[in-house]
Amino acid sequence: MDAHANVDEVLAAPAPDGVWISRFSAAELHERARAVDPGAPLAGLTFAVKDNIDVAGLPTTAACPDFAYRPERNAPVVQRLVDAGAIVVGKTNLDQFATGLTGARSPYGAPESVFGGGLISGGSSSGSAVAVANGSVHFSLGTDTAGSGRVPAALNGIIGIKPTRGLLSTLGVVPACRSLDCVSVFTREPSLAGRVIRVARGFVPQDPWSRKAPPEARPIARPRVGVAEGLDFFADNGQEKAYARVAADTTVDVGPLLEAGDLLYRGPWVAERLADLGDFLATRPESVLPVTRRVLETGLGFTAADAFRAQHRMQELRAAAGRMWERIDVLVLPTIGTTFTHAEIADDPIGRNLILGRYTQFANLLDMAAVTVPNGFTEDGRPASLTLFGPAFSDDLLLALATSPSAAAGGITV
């Protein structure tokens, strides 16, 4: 691809409010384009980076100006992409400290979905998703702890990849919940997502959370697909009808998964966010948005005994999830049960955030891989979406399914 032409397209593209926090100058981007090896795997492709991931030459803010610092080097996951010929355009907006799924918790603005109508962009990787969906860049990096790499994909009609924890290094990423955090990838095309993931993944010895992927297993000729019955769509008949289009082999009980997800924000895992942000919150409380502070401070109410009790229950729920994978290879769920406008989120920012995460926030707790794909539109024009889940290191299988013509047409049939 012509790197300079791609840079010119980026520079000419309109910049919607609230998408970018910082960008390299035109001169800097063209300088990077001149350095691209035309034979590199991602030669000349442009990408955006969520502003809780380090990019040398730009500040890392985590959407909190008083927290900002200037990293000396790229995060390893960014460096792998740069080495493969991709060009970093800039840093994108997010829910502050990656705490939220709405895209409405940032002092840098609140991006709207590309579908307009006051629809939220989703978060926390709001800017990264919109920058891909509106064609500003070819792909972007986000993060995903509770669903931040999937909810914004759903609300903007694009592909969202939440890899197995540790498959992409989180070194150089501002922690949210360090034991659960993932770097995510957004693209408009599943095939490009696969190319990006293959470049970005890899064990990083300096990263204690990095994991070595096992040798590739023999491809599954016909994966067994499961769906769930009796899901709550929060009175959104359009989303319910969109999910009903999925063809599957069997139904499964996702009760243990949903219980695990409830523990993320209603249990002691919220206190893990204080392990890295507690000192900043204690000394600079005025620098943190009220809604973000409210979420973080709930972590102060849990004891060590609470944490151990929750870990014990989580182990039981992981065992239940493990038994599920004996029956199916892939679980397909709606990414979100319903959509919201910015006005609706403003009326109930905490409660509606929990609704957005209902079918996403268990994945990292239960060590799953996930891929989000568009699933058409509801009758009232709202985007619908599906997420394909598999056990840890099933990433290649999920990407293969997401690339299938049936998935691209708005349904999963294998």
Q: What are the SSEs and their pairings?
A:
Elements: H1 3-12, E1 20-23, H2 26-34, E2 46-50, H3 76-83, E3 87-92, H4 126-133, E4 139-144, H5 151-156, E5 159-162, E6 182-187, H6 190-200, E7 225-228, H7 237-244, E8 250-252, H8 255-266, H9 269-283, H10 290-297, H11 304-324, E9 330-334, H12 342-347, H13 349-356, E10 368-377, E11 383-391, H14 395-403, H15 405-408
Parallel strand pairs: 2-3, 2-4, 7-8, 7-9
Antiparallel strand pairs: 1-3, 4-6, 5-6, 5-10, 9-11, 10-11
Quaternary form: single chain
Count of alpha/pi helices: 15
Helix content: 25-40%
- What pattern of helices and strands is seen along the backbone? HEHEHEHEHEEHEHEHHHHEHHEEHH
Helix and strand composition category: alpha/beta
Strand order across the largest sheet: 1-3-2-4-6-5-10-11-9-7-8
Overall pLDDT level: 95
Q: What is the CA-atom radius of gyration, in angstroms? A: 20 Å
Distance between the termini: 33 Å
Low-confidence parts, pLDDT < 50 over ≥5 residues? Answer: none
Task: Summarize, please.
The protein is α/β, with parallel strands linked by helices and 414 residues long.
General description of the model:
The protein is of the alpha/beta class and 414 residues long. Helix content is 35%, strand content 15%. It has 15 helices and eleven strands. The chain has helices at residues 3-12, 26-34, 76-83, 126-133, 151-156, 190-200, 237-244, 255-266, 269-283, 290-297, 304-324, 342-347, 349-356, 395-403, 405-408; strands at residues 20-23, 46-50, 87-92, 139-144, 159-162, 182-187, 225-228, 250-252, 330-334, 368-377, 383-391. The protein has an eleven-stranded mixed sheet with strand order 1-3-2-4-6-5-10-11-9-7-8, with helices on both faces. Strand 2 (46-50), helix 3 (76-83) and strand 3 (87-92) form a beta-alpha-beta unit.
